[in-house]
Amino acid sequence: MSRLRQFLFKLQPFFRRRKIEADLSEEMRAHLEMQTEANLAAGMPPEEARYAARREFGGIDQVKESYRDERGVRWLEDAARDVCFGARMLRKNPGFTAVAALTLALGIGANTAIFSVFYGVLLQPLPYPEQERLIFIHDWSKETTFDPVSYLNFVVWREQQQSFTAIGVARPWQFSYVGPNETERLNGAVASYDLFAAIGMAPIRGRLFTAEDDKPGAERTVVIRTSLWKRLFGGRDSVIGEKVKLSGEFYTIIGILPNNFRIPLEGAELWTPISHSLSGEELQYGYRPNALYAYARLKPGISLESAAANMRVLAAGLDKEHPSGGLIPTLLPLATAGAGEVRPILYVLLGAAGFVLLIACSNVANLQLARAHARAREFAVRAALGSGRMRIARQLLVESLILGLLGCGAGAFLGSWALGGLTAMLPAGASRMDEVSLNLWVLGFAVVASLLTSVLFGLVPAFHAARQNVREALAQEGRLAGSTRGNRWRAGLIIGECALTCALLVGAGLMLRTLGNLYRSEPGFSTEHLLTFNWVVRGGRYEDPAVRYWLIHRALERLAAVPGVAHVGIVDPLPFEGRDNRTVYLIKGGTIPGERGPWPSANWGIVGGDCLGALGVKLMAGRAFDARDDWRSTRVVIVDTQFVEKEFRGRNPIGQLIWTGGEPPKRETDWMEIIGVVGHINTLGPGQPSLPQIYWFTQQTIPQSMGFAVRAEGEPTAVVSSLRAALREVADDLSMASVRTMDQLFASNIANQRLVVKLLGAFAALALLLAGVGLYGVVSYSVSQRTREIGIRVALGATSRSVVRMTMQQGATLASAGLVIGLAAALALTRLLQSLLFETSPHDPLVYGVVAVGLLGVAALACWLPARRAAKVNPLEALRAE
Amino acid sequence: MTNEKSELLQGTLDMLILKALQLKPMHGFGLSIRLRQMSRELFQVEMGSLYPALCRLEARGWVKAEWGVSDHNRKARYYVLTPAGRKQLQAETTQWELLSSTINAMLKAT
């Protein structure tokens, strides 16, 4: 209590300085007068009485000063004085302040924006209990590095694993819901009953699935999210137990989940047990249905590594029993697993933003150094008047801190503005994107970043000023004082800037090359005038394959007749759609793969109609599917050239029999005959690895969901409405979904690379600008320092060309030193970019060459401007200025 | 006077000021006279010590300063001992007596 009292008392001078000072003077005066009176009373003459009183009292100012020391908080007062003085100095140089603060704001703004995304996607904790124990599992094989999980394999995992308290699977699923006004598509998922237990989520109403719910033939049940509950059912409690019709089937609503449950994807609003959705093919070992992934919760005390080892052993045993292509389950922490492809991008961008900030810092440090130099006399005078070196250094640091905070404020503003654009550019599918915002963590980051940078750019000038020799500085009248030490600092900073800029330019250049290569890459089909959409035929009468057979037949016929349409085909999955289906296979008469290494894998797709014409793919051998092939005839397949190359080198594939699935077919008639060979197309997207393809025929397999590819004669979007009308004639309770042109699909596939090119390019350009300005500053500063020397040289007969050469040489030396260091650094650093590059070596000589030439060009320009000024130095004036 | 010595004496000076104020409130000049008298003209307090000491005591709440009028009708700043200051004086006196008697005894020991 008394401590606090004391502190408050000592704080008073901050607010009532004038009053306290007046009191103090008054008190001193009264004291002196009373002493004088006492002396007079003792019989001294008036004059002497006053002197004696003064003598006895001692120095009034010293007494006052020691009183003040006692009265106030010294360091706080000094700091306040430094801040006031610093602010005044900055106000006096608005140009310097604006340039420095803006430079910092650019650096801090870039970092704040990138860090916001970084935090939201990678660092922010998940909204699930004990999230550090949550694991995401996908499959891995030699041929495919990121595969979905096979359902039957998962069932074995569930029975035999020992590392998890629970393990479940889920895959995204769309449901159609007939509302009062229109048919709505609902995003949801099918999930094994134990998914919720694995994540550790409790319902806010009702209950979640039990093992009984997740059995084939069980009563259909559904769990919905709060958002859907509010939207469709107005948040009624009585909704539990009600039946709702989804995709033609009735489901009983049993529970409601909180809105923050986002497995397996952001927008999922309802979940049904997975067993209702698994079809015959999907119930095979080694068969990996699209986008089925596992989620598990580690037992307490079990590490990720030991759980992974346990799962590998389990999977190896399983692979012996039911060959599945040598799949190895890969375990990732759930918190960061979703970031997937975005993660390397974010690391690269955060690093690049850091580079920009460093460059901005060294530019400001350079400005501060030059200014400190101009203020050398001020410092010298202060030092001569007894100001300690630390005090001067502190003063400069305080100025830097003020600048830093100015930069921070402006930077946070710039950052929040840039963030809006940035989130719009990032791939929409990236997980947790909607959680990105400018929050306290991010603002804290901005403040810490700006404080750190102020110390960084403030330390060098402060250190430098503190070491100045007072006598020298005063004697030189602050005119010539170009101490070599200061110049060396400046040169070092510029070299560093050039090196960082060079590394950024190389990174941006490599990404640009990659983007070019992606645009030029050959997908194996023609993308022009191509329109794609999905059509789901599920529920009710459509569960009957015979109904679907005729429906597909009619739809293809009707669509082909639409004016403006050249070819219509069914391709599922559609190329570039980001889906692929994988399976293991067996060739009759070939070696049984299980005995020699893992089973081979291939993608499979279902095609129908005139898909060759629609995609512009050539038939290489054999025949295409036709009316001969239907559900009564032998199953036939078409494979692609990559498949032939892999399996039938030089032999004729036509007529060979193959089987897809982990175990040999039970009946001899189940073997499928290869009837044709088509060109290979890149299904997953440009720059993605692709597997050999096996195609089935829609009229034999009769799928429930299919992708349509429509080649139009002109602009593909022009035929959309007539296509929609034609399909409604075929079945008015079904609608087309995800209508996109192939160009749009292509663009969304390379969105990541485009984003990196844009941002890295922007960062590199910013860096180049800052480095150019920095170099310009240093060279022109040195020209102004050396005006007299140049004057003498000219007087002694130096030509203006030789003056220009001399000046430019200085800049060129710095820039080339930076370039060499930067290129070396780029050689090492660009390896980190590797995962983002496509058909581009991280050591691409063209990029390095262009960067070297470009950087030197900018450096030359930055030096040439001050050099020209140097050449115009009039020797008479320069010498007279002495 | 060197620095260490003044620090050594600081506490003592504070105590003496409290003692001087025990009888009646006083202004700075009065205090300097009173302190000299109390020491039988041996101890001359410097103003550079007296005023900071007064400030210190005020900060701790042991004295209170208020403007008043002196005997000679002059405006002066008077220092008044607060109840907390009285208690502090008592405590310090006891402590000092104990300390000095102990030291005296030790010095006299043979």
Overview features:
heterodimer, A: 882 residues, alpha+beta, 4 domains, ten-stranded mixed sheet, six-stranded mixed β-barrel, 27 helices, 21 strands, B: 110 residues, Arc Repressor Mutant, subunit A, three-stranded antiparallel sheet, 3 strands, disordered N terminus
Low-confidence stretches of chain B: 1-8
- Provide the β-strand percentage band of chain A: 15-25%
What structural class is derived from the secondary structure elements of chain B? alpha+beta
Percent of residues of chain A in helical segments? 40-55%
Mean pLDDT of chain A: 84
Cα gyration radius of chain B (Å): 15 Å
Helix coverage percent of chain B: 55-70%
Q: What's the Cα radius of gyration of chain A?
A: 38 Å
Classify the fold: give the CATH topology of chain B: Arc Repressor Mutant, subunit A
Mean pLDDT of chain B: 84
CATH architecture of chain B: Orthogonal Bundle
Helix-strand sequence of chain B:
HEHHEEH
Count the helices of chain B. How many?
4
Describe the overall structure:
- The complex is a heterodimer of chains A (882) and B (110).
- Helix content of chain A is 53%, strand content 16%.
- With 882 residues, chain A is of the alpha+beta class.
- Chain A folds into four domains: 2-72, no CATH class; 148-326, no CATH class; 342-519 and 751-880, no CATH class; 538-733, no CATH class.
- In chain A, strands 1, 2, 3, 4, 5, 6, 7, 8, 9 and 10 form a ten-stranded mixed sheet that branches. Chain A has a six-stranded mixed β-barrel with strand order 13-14-19-16-18-17.
- In chain A, helix 11 runs parallel beside helix 14, helix 16 packs antiparallel against helix 23 (751-785) and helix 23 (751-785) packs parallel to helix 26 (845-871).
- The longest helix of chain A is centred in the first third of the chain and has 40 residues, at 2-41.
- Chain A is elongated, with a radius of gyration of 38 Å.
- The two termini of chain A are 65 Å apart.
- Chain B is α+β, with helices and mostly antiparallel strands and 110 residues long.
- A three-stranded antiparallel sheet of chain B has the order 1-3-2.
- Chain B starts with a helix and ends with a helix.
